[in-house]
Amino acid sequence: MTKENFNSAVAQTGRTIAARILPDKDVLETIEEICQAYNIKYGQISTCIGSLRKINMNYVSSSVFKYTTSMVMEGAFSILAGQGLVSPAEEKDKLNTHLHFVISGQHDAIYGGHVEHGTRTLTTLDLFITELSGLKISRSRDEVTGAVVTSFEEDRSNSLNENRG
User: Fold this and answer.
1) I need a surface site. Which of 3, 9, 124, 159 has the fewest CB within 10 A?
2) What pLDDT, in 10s, does the model give residues 6-25?
3) Alpha-carbon distance values, 158 to 94, 116, 126 (Å)
4) What residue segments make up the domains of the chain, in order of their start?
């Protein structure tokens, strides 16, 4: 449903996958691997806790176009919270993981933002991925803001039984 002030769709939830990402693994690559192993095309990442040895994130730093700043750091970081969405990527048989973390670092500095490839686990990352059906999730550049944003569309052909293959 698209209205003047929002875009939305109703989804149904299916299986919830509990997973642990092992040490020194790329976070996004591994989440995509987990989803592919369970044939999840659309999903919600609701819980992320653990630690990181390298962060590669973008955070909002301006209200104008190209509004994010990249942050790459190595060290020991705790994941305080994480959440995101999984959807098909433009490239065939690939997934897009849109993930945000709030993390603490040295001297209890707090960082947050959009997670990029290259973010790597330190000892562990525990997460839950819930399968979604009945909708399509897509990421594309917004004509008004220029930012890449998420859109939702109802899709009755995307049932849980079809997702499982």
Assistant:
1) 3
2) 989 999 999 999 999 999 99
3) 17, 28, 28
4) 15-163
